[in-house]
Amino acid sequence: MDLTFKALMNYVSRLSGVDLSRYRESYLKRRVELRMKILGFQTFEQYLRYLRLNGHDEVKRLIDTITINVTEFMRDKTPFEYFMKVILPTIAEKKRKVGSNILRFWSAGCSCGEEPYSIAICTLEALGRGWNLSIYATDIDEKCLEIAKEGFYRASQLKNLRADIVRKYFDKEEDGYRVKRFLKRYIRFKKHDLTTEKPVSRYFDVIFCRNVMIYFSEKQKVKVVQDFYDALVDGGYLIIGKSETLPMGFKDKFECVSLKEKVYRKISLKSMDYLIHS
Ligand SMILES: C[S@@+](CC[C@H](N)C(=O)[O-])C[C@H]1O[C@@H](n2cnc3c(N)ncnc32)[C@H](O)[C@@H]1O
What we know:
The protein is an alpha/beta fold. It is 46% helix and 19% strand. It contains 10 helices and 10 strands. The protein has helices at 3-16, 25-39, 44-66, 78-97, 114-127, 142-150, 163-169, 181-184, 218-231, 269-277; strands at 102-108, 132-139, 152-153, 170-173, 176-179, 187-191, 204-209, 232-240, 254-258, 263-266. It has a 7-stranded mixed beta sheet. Strands 3-5-4 form a 3-stranded antiparallel beta sheet. β7 (204-209), α9 and β8 form a beta-alpha-beta unit. α1 crosses α3 and α4 packs across α5 (114-127). The chain is globular, with a radius of gyration of 21 Å. The relative contact order is 0.11. The mean pLDDT is 91. It binds S-adenosylmethionine. The site of S-adenosylmethionine (SAM) has 22 residues, from loops. GO terms for molecular function: protein-glutamate O-methyltransferase activity. Pfam families: CheR (PF01739), CheR_N (PF03705). Keywords: Methyltransferase, S-adenosyl-L-methionine, Transferase. It comes from Archaeoglobus profundus (strain DSM 5631 / JCM 9629 / NBRC 100127 / Av18).
């Protein structure tokens, strides 16, 4: 790593308390260069000097740029349609067979809440209210989690939702929309770093981790995907972002059920055992 860039990263880490070593260097450089472009700096040296003078404010802006939280309700739409039309009915049938009404989902890297609220809406629309539904929603960014708990969004963030769905799940306020209280009750928001911490819980039926791993190194991806494997029930689903791929070494752990929607299903080791020994 170039020395000035290293000094810059150390300075930002020290001031913000955020461990930047978990991000790829190429990614960090791109995000830093974005801030430099906005401010009109040509070199890391100039930017570092500016950071030292402007301290906290610019460090905060840079951290926000690094942990970008771009998202929206039903982002990309079709994975959510697949979730409603294929995944949820399949899970519901399995659960009915064993007399269970428990549904457990995890939105890992939930940003400001749009994804977990979308998951809750899809589930209620597809299966109705007779289920014991809990959705864990985690992110590394505390500011985002505060917004998520508030559940207040501008109209533009709801553009993928039909008007009747907005009426059913949101209260209109003067300058935006607030998620109705009954919907919030299904979701537990929690600060969690996917790259350093253990899974928040276990026995999930579905894990969404969309547009998060793009920022991780291959080694971090392996750690995170292994955690997801451990945290899923046998046959549980993992849904990743459309431009993402699973790291190497998971072919015998996940089967791809929709390449287009990037949906994977956990292969249980027990069933592998059975296949090998029968
Ligand atoms: C682009 S958003 C994706 C939001 C949503 N999943 C979606 O697909 O629209 C990426 C999110 O990942 C979070 N994130 C980045 N690094 C993380 C980490 N190490 N652990 C947990 N969340 C992380 C960011 O804070 C951000 O909210």
